[in-house]
Design brief:
Layout lengths: L2 H33 L8 H13 L5 E3 L3 H7 L8 E3 L4 H17 L6 H23 L4 E3 L1 H19 L6 H12 L2 H35 L1 H11 L2 H28 L4 E2 L4 E3 L2 E3 L25 H22 L9 H29 L12 E2 L2 H22 L15
Antiparallel strand pairs: 1-2, 1-3, 4-7, 5-6
Length: 415
């Protein structure tokens, strides 16, 4: 494609990204405006609500200020004062990132790839800024700089991931740097990176399976909460949409639960394998899947991330062995083999701890006034626990893979 055509299509792609994300809550809000409120309310209210949901899904802080009558009717401590909501509905961010990956893959072979990527990301930034300006209201005021930057950053990350191909100049230069580096350094670094990220990915996958299982087992309680809300058909659809957007966040809560520290649903509360202490909760049907008590397995639940790290250690051992140019399990002395395994495990643990701590930070925030200002996992605790569990698992995996004794040499045959 020509330079002009690439820029035009990239700009249209940016419009599509913002439009798709906003249209999901806005379409349902418009149906509510027509069917349930009979066109009596100002439609701009539903536009602002859709914009706030989309911005909140990208981690934008929104400051709420309820009027005195509504605050008094709710009867919640601190609801009369301005309060910030920072808990991200990560489903929207995931959608934006996936659309960015899609564009990055499409532009891989284009001669003006960088121009297209810059136009698309800049377009998302400009459109997000316009959304923030149009949605601002004293009752719900999103942060302007976050509203402009955060969706563009999420989209840019997706574009960067999608553009990583075999012919990507940055990837080619990186491969050349790796080829020129000492084999021992690249072997240990590559093994540690793959083991750390592999352990995190496995724990997050286990968290998604745990979330699915909890929803299936707690289906009755979830339905009961739906009935207690009495939101009607359209209100129930709106509530379901919000919960679907929250679902990736809940998956990260489940992963934090498996790691050990768990997560909070309000100040002073905790949900972990060894302790469950809950206070008053909002009537959100998804919360009906919460465990009623501590896990019957107790601390044995912590074996999940350890086993994930152990499997990662087994998987990356060939890369570590190749760095020595010899049979890593047999030719190296036992002390050296243990030392290199511990070093690789430590690097993998640092990577896993930082990655999991970052994910926990994304899944934590304030969901309302008062005690709801503390919701989600503690990023520092999750990162430290993941570091310790990965260190144990990866190190044992690297050592166990070569735990067999070498075969004795065959006796020489007589002539």
């Amino acid at each position: 494609m020509t330079r002009r055509l690439t820029a035009t299509l990239a700009a249209l792609e940016a419009l599509l990204v913002v439009g798709v994300g906003l249209s999901i809550p806005l379409a349902l809000g418009t149906v509510l405006w027509a069917a349930q409120f009979g066109f009596q309310l100002d439609w701009i209210i539903f536009w602002r609500a859709a914009a706030d949901l989309w911005l909140l899904g990208h981690g934008v802080t929104i400051t709420f200020q309820l009027d005195p009558v509504t605050a008094l009717a709710l009867g919640v401590d601190g609801v009369g004062d301005p309060f910030a909501v920072t808990l991200a509905l990560l489903g929207f961010a995931l959608l934006t990132a996936l659309l960015g990956v899609r564009l990055g893959r499409r532009l891989r072979a284009e001669p003006h790839r960088i121009l297209g990527e810059l136009v698309a990301v800049t377009g998302v930034l400009v459109l997000s800024a316009l959304v923030v300006l149009s949605a601002g209201h004293p009752a719900a005021l999103p942060s302007r700089w976050q509203g402009a930057m955060f969706p563009a950053l999420v989209y840019g990350l997706g574009v960067a991931i999608g553009s990583i191909g075999a012919t990507n100049p940055a990837r080619v230069r990186l491969r050349q740097l790796i080829a020129d580096a000492p084999p021992l350094l690249t072997g240990i670094g590559g093994a540690a990176l793959r083991a750390g990220l592999g352990a995190v990915a496995t724990v997050v996958l286990a968290g998604s399976l745990l979330t699915t299982t909890a929803l299936v087992l707690g289906f009755g309680q979830v339905i009961a909460l739906y009935e207690s809300v009495q939101a009607g058909v359209l209100g129930g659809l709106a509530l379901t949409l919000g919960q679907l957007a929250l679902l990736p966040t809940v998956v990260l809560w489940s992963a934090s639960w498996l790691i050990g520290p768990g997560f909070a649903l309000g100040a002073g509360s905790i949900v972990s394998p060894v302790a469950v202490s809950l206070g008053p909760l909002p009537a959100i049907p998804l919360l009906g899947a919460l465990p009623a008590g501590e896990s019957p397995l107790g601390y044995l639940t912590l074996l999940v991330p350890v086993v994930a790290a152990f499997a990662a250690g087994l998987a990356v051992r060939p890369r570590l062995a190749a760095a020595f140019g010899r049979a890593y399990a047999y030719d190296l002395p036992l002390g050296a083999r243990v030392g290199w395994s511990v070093l690789t495990g430590l690097l993998a643990a640092i990577i896993a701890g930082l990655a999991m701590g970052f994910l926990a930070w994304l899944a934590a925030g304030a969901a309302g006034p008062g005690r709801l200002a503390v919701v989600g996992p503690d990023p520092v605790a999750v990162g430290v626990w993941m570091l310790a569990e990965t260190l144990i698992g990866v190190t044992l995996g690297l050592l166990a893979a070569g735990a067999r004794a070498p075969r004795p040499a065959a006796p020489a045959r007589g002539r």
